[in-house]
Amino acid sequence: MEQLIAICRPGFETEAGRELTDSAASGEVYGYFEPSVNQGFLTFHCPGPGQVEMLVQRLSIDQLVFVRDWFVVLADVALPTSDRVGAVIDALRSVDGAIPVCARIEIRLPENNADADLSNFARKWVSPLSKALRGAGLLEKDSKAESPARLEVLLTGFERAIVGFSLASNRARYVSGIPRLRLPASAPSRSALKLEEAWKVFLPPGQELDYLGSGKQAVDLGAAPGGWTWQLVRQGMMVTAVDNGPMNAELMASGHVEHVEADGYQWRPRARCGLDGVRYRRPSTPNLGDGRALAVCQALSLYRFQSETTDEKTIRRVVGVQGHPGRRPCTDGNELPAEGPSPLPRS
Ligand SMILES: C[S@@+](CC[C@H](N)C(=O)[O-])C[C@H]1O[C@@H](n2cnc3c(N)ncnc32)[C@H](O)[C@@H]1O
Fold this sequence. Notes:
By secondary structure, the protein is α/β, with parallel strands linked by helices. It has helices at residues 13-26, 51-58, 84-93, 116-135, 191-202, 208-211, 227-234, 249-252, 291-308, 312-322; strands spanning 3-7, 32-36, 41-45, 69-78, 102-108, 149-155, 160-167, 181-182, 217-221, 238-242, 257-260, 275-277, 338-339.
């Protein structure tokens, strides 16, 4: 099909498409994009044979800012009302060329999907579709087997599925680039999810404990009511929470938090600190610890910054300096997709 589906935040399809077109061209893959307005994905067309595979071999998903995830298209399937599974199998059997070995399937919906029936259908369809694909030899027998690729299905509605594959070596760490996080009832604010997303996305995999964890110290500037502080305390850290506003009483009872009622712009730590969770723009960030701690602090402020700017060059400049992946966080400064209860203060 010589097409790639690129997933992005809804409303950023054009930015993602331009970014992909330019990045692909720098790897000598030439194509054009077709945005799907506000649906959080775009189709990238590469007219030359083998170009899409070349693109995912040459360009790393981590180099992209607006494109959060992607997959190579194998077939665009019109789904009948009677046998949707059969239609997918027929389409995959008619694909020219080899399909990489896949052990599992991921069913996705457009990011802006508001159709609860379609969501239910997608959830319930995974099992019968996987079983039938396994029976047809289109998925590995063992769903837990390590495989170089994963089958992908983007259900744009009940009538259409875009089917393809993503490579294990070059796709987002989290499906669609977004860790789906659960907000525990004890979290003082929904902000807690932002910090969790930031460290899941920005900290190098497997090295989280170099930055977070028992015995380490953190400073939370503008901390009230305490969502970020709460996350750090959950890691066993001691936190200095700087804010003139009130902190969550239960969190304070943990004994891990020193609440300093002060202006965060003026306040300076008495001693070196491990992690500085700066969360509002300021001309300079106090150096609270060693370079590594500062990198985390910068990653966190970058996270905030990235959610507020749409200028790719600016993001790239900051990201390039800091060596962090340039992924745009999914929050727009207000919301993260979350599971669980959430009648909590917005941040
Ligand atoms: C959006 S809330 C932070 C929510 C917090 N991140 C959480 O996780 O629950 C912003 C906080 O910044 C505080 N703030 C704003 N300017 C400040 C300053 N100059 N110094 C200290 N705190 C400040 C406000 O009092 C407010 O509590």
